[in-house]
Amino acid sequence: DGGITQSPKYLFRKEGQNVTLSCEQNLNHDAMYWYRQDPGQGLRLIYYSQIVNDFQKGDIAEGYSVSREKKESFPLTVTSAQKNPTAFYLCASSPQIGTGQSTEAFFGQGTRLTVV
Amino acid sequence: QKEVEQNSGPLSVPEGAIASLNCTYSDRGSQSFFWYRQYSGKSPELIMSIYSNGDKEDGRFTAQLNKASQYVSLLIRDSQPSDSATYLCAVVVSGGYNKLIFGAGTRLAVHP
Residues of B numbered 27-66 whose beta carbons fall under 8 angstroms of chain A's beta carbons: which are they? Predict the structure, then answer.
């Protein structure tokens, strides 16, 4: 089955803890993204990566970190520096991030993070 | 000015009517545009992509792009209650590194 797998589906974090959200894809896509969605809001870009071993900050990168050591994997760490981490986190991938064809992005099922 | 703007709605249409969803974007260099549908509690699913000026039709959906006006729209013909969802407009914003940016979404409610 080809697709994007996010785990876990639900995650609870205590204040002051770092947690890592997993995102794996077997679509052979070069580009991967992390978005955050708050209730009733759109998607805000946290980090994105166009190629292995390279990634860029999005609009709300503070308090988050990522790595892209393998093409198929793009884990997101929510650090204790993120003051309000409770949200729905979405990972996506696309063949590339370009201007034209082959840039359609597809999403995983998401991870709901709650701070307790 | 936000990079991608949508009316948050809700847009309410009767079953069988045409629903019209609109999106404007700020980057004149953008070349790739997408519409996603998101049901409550679920992840977005891609329903249309458009790269050239004009109309693109797929079943009951038509995407329209006008780069001169920096405007992209989605028409849903013969709207069904199952079309009730939030529709997200997304644009690849050009720059040193291209990035995929989403609007806040328009909530559509189709009533019987």
Answer: 29-32, 34, 42-46, 49, 51
Bridge partners (DSSP) listed for residue A48: A33, A56
Q: Measured between CB atoms, which of B44, B92, B104 is closest to A97?
A: B92
- CB–CB contact B44 A103 (8 Å): no
Please report the pLDDT score of residue A97 as a whole number: 74
Q: How far apart are CA A103 and CA A86, in angstroms?
A: 29
Query: In whole angstroms, what is the distance from residue B37 CA to residue A16 CA?
Result: 35
Phi and psi torsions of B104, nearest 5° = -75, -10
Nearest to B43 among A44, A50, A110 (CB): A110
> Are the C-beta atoms of residues A45 and A80 closer than 8 Å to each other?
no
CA distance B109 to chain A (A): 15
Other residues' Cβ atoms within 10 Å of the Cβ of residue B28: 9
- Shortest Cα distance from A17 to chain B (angstroms)? 25
Interval B50-72: pLDDT, tens: 999 999 999 999 999 999 999 99
Identify the residue with better confidence: A90 or A15. A90
The per-residue b/e assignment along A58-67, b for 16 or more CB within 10 angstroms, e otherwise, is beebeebbbe
| Closest CA–CA distance from residue B15 to any residue of chain A (Å) | 24
Longest dimension (CA), chain B: 48
